């Protein structure tokens, strides 16, 4: 039984490709454990519109939580811990944290988009975002409609979270209906 010349060439090409892939994967895995984090790139995707979060504030948040990123091995960085710390910030809607082969830790942030600012009669001020999340008003002004003269909100002062978490109680549902009408 003789093998055709084309079949032999195909077998040799496939074997060479397999050997190359094994070598490349081995080389990358060994190199990844040796790479030192050379810097952090923080990109706030919608920073021109909303100024709740800046690259500097993200770095401050990580420093306050004692998460060291500079001059450590890339494989020792706990990316999930970085994401969890960032998810505690009510102004951050989405975050993506990843490393690159050149030694950089990349953090991409999308902020919440406020739809309306509500000011109660007793001075409590909040933004309601497009995903019905309540965030406190900070020093950054946002160009949104302001609703004033609201006697009280269906949640206590200092609440941060989704409005829908307050619609379970019948009494709060009635107050929430009034807020939705506004």
Description of the molecule:
It is a single chain. The protein is α/β, with parallel strands linked by helices and 182 residues long. Helix content is 34%, strand content 25%. The protein contains four helices and eight strands, in the order H-E-H-H-E-E-E-E-E-E-E-H. The strands form two sheets. It has a five-stranded mixed sheet with strand order 7-4-5-6-8, with no helix packed on it. The chain is elongated, with a radius of gyration of 26 Å. The mean pLDDT is 82.
Keywords, separated by commas or semicolons:
182 residues; alpha/beta; five-stranded mixed beta sheet; three-stranded mixed beta sheet; 8 strands; 34% helix; 25% strand
User: How many beta strands in the DSSP annotation?
Assistant: 8
Secondary-structure content class? alpha/beta
Mean pLDDT: 82
Across the major sheet, the strand order is 7-4-5-6-8
End-to-end separation? 85 Å
How much helical structure, as a percent, in the residues? 25-40%
Number of contiguous helices: 4
Radius of gyration, taken over Cα atoms and rounded to an integer in Å: 26 Å
Estimate the global geometry from the Cα principal axes.
Answer: elongated
Strand content: 15-25%
Which residues sit in consecutive blocks of at least 5 with pLDDT less than 50? none
């Amino acid at each position: 039984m003789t093998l055709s010349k084309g079949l032999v060439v195909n077998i040799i090409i496939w074997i060479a490709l397999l050997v190359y892939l094994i070598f490349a994967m081995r080389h990358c895995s060994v190199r990844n454990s040796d790479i030192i984090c050379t810097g952090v790139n923080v990109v706030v995707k919608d920073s021109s519109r909303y100024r709740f979060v800046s690259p500097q504030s993200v770095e401050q948040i990580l420093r306050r939580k004692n998460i060291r990123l500079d001059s450590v091995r890339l494989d020792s960085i706990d990316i999930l811990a970085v994401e969890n710390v960032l998810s505690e910030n009510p102004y951050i809607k989405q975050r993506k944290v990843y490393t690159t082969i050149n030694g950089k830790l990349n953090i991409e942030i999308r902020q919440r988009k406020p739809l309306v600012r509500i000011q109660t009669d007793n001075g409590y001020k909040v933004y309601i975002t497009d995903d019905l999340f309540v965030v406190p008003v900070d020093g950054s002004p946002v160009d949104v409609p302001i609703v004033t003269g609201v006697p009280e909100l269906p949640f206590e002062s200092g609440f941060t979270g989704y409005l829908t978490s307050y619609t379970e109680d019948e009494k709060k549902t009635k107050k929430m209906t009034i807020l939705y009408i506004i």
